[in-house]
Amino acid sequence: MSNVRRPKNPFDDDDDEPNDFVFVPRGPSRPQEKKYPYGDFGIDEDDQEKDDHDGAVSLQTQIEERQQNMLQSTNRSLGMMYEAENVGNETAHELLRQGEQLQNIDKKLDKMNTDIDTSKKHVTSLRSVFGGVVNYFSKKPEREKPEEQERAPSKLRTMVGDGPGAKKEEQDCMDHPAMRLRDPNAGRYNSRYDTSGFEETPSSSMRGTGYNSSRQQFEQKLDSNLDEMSSGLGRLKNLGLGLGDEIERQNDDIDRITGKTDKLDTRIEGVNTDIKKILRR
Fold it and tell me: Organism's domain of life (predicted)?
């Protein structure tokens, strides 16, 4: 039995020498550390904090630019509104002067009408030989008093304040924001509507109290500009109503002057006709 050979495994090597390869068990393996803890983008913690800070600064810069653009836009609107108000005030003063001239013309027409009555009396006295005696003993005709129409006080004059306080108004006009807007050296206007404080400065950063202070200043100036725009638009509205009322008053004056002028022309033609008849005799 001992001489019986075991069947040979066909997959074994032909040589009976022992295999040189020896399997050596490895020790416990350490987990491999990731080279980039935030993924495969090569960003470490310091770079991430720097990017976050740069993003915050960029966002704050954009906010400040928008704030300054808003303030500059409201300042431009205020400037145009003040210019319109200034033009309206000049138009109002010119319109009031024109109204005074119309009133003077009206008074002169009344005086001319009275003079025509006197002239007609003298022409009548020349028609007869006894005209002078008749006119001497005749009662002097009562002169018709010119019709004085009651005029309501001018709303525009009351609004503009054209009167004893004109000097004060002129001084107020020089202090008007429209005039100060043209002069960059005017301190009071610039201090109220200045936007230079909203430039990018360390105090207006996003951290701490500086940002809140800058935001409060922006909101206060913006509210101030909007309030001034609201009151200015109200003044422009009232000024427009006053101009319209004064134009209607002067249109009535022109119609009245036109009627008096036509009547006066007719009377003058009558007197001229009487004189021509007398001269033909």
Answer: Eukaryota
Query: Taking a C-beta distance cutoff of 8 angstroms, is the pair 82, 232 a contact?
Result: yes
**Residue 189, Cβ density class (10 Å: 0-12 exposed, 13-18 middle, ≥19 buried):** buried
Task: Determine the 3-state secondary structure of 205 from DSSP.
Answer: coil
Helices (DSSP H) in the chain: which residue ranges? 45-125, 131-137, 155-160, 166-174, 177-182, 187-193, 209-280
- Could you count the other beta carbons within 10 Å of the beta carbon of residue 158? 11
- Both tokens of 4, joined, read 């019986």
Instruction: Look up residue 202 and give its DSSP letter.
Output: G
pTM: 0.56
> CA angle at residue 206 from 200 to 212, to 5 degrees?
95
pLDDT one digit per residue (tens) for the chain, 281 residues = 455 555 555 555 555 555 555 555 555 555 555 544 544 555 556 666 666 666 777 787 888 888 889 999 999 999 999 999 999 999 999 999 999 999 999 999 999 999 998 888 888 877 765 455 555 555 555 555 555 556 667 778 877 766 544 445 445 544 544 444 444 444 444 444 443 443 444 444 444 455 577 788 888 999 999 999 999 999 999 999 999 999 999 999 999 999 999 999 999 999 898 888 888 76
Q: How does DSSP classify residue 17?
A: S
Closest CA to 79 of 175, 182, 184, 230: 182
Please give the backbone phi and psi of residue 76, each rounded to the nearest 5 degrees, phi first.
-65, -40
Query: CA–CA separation, 213 vs 28, rounded Å?
Result: 61
The overall longest dimension of the chain from CA atoms, in Å, is: 199
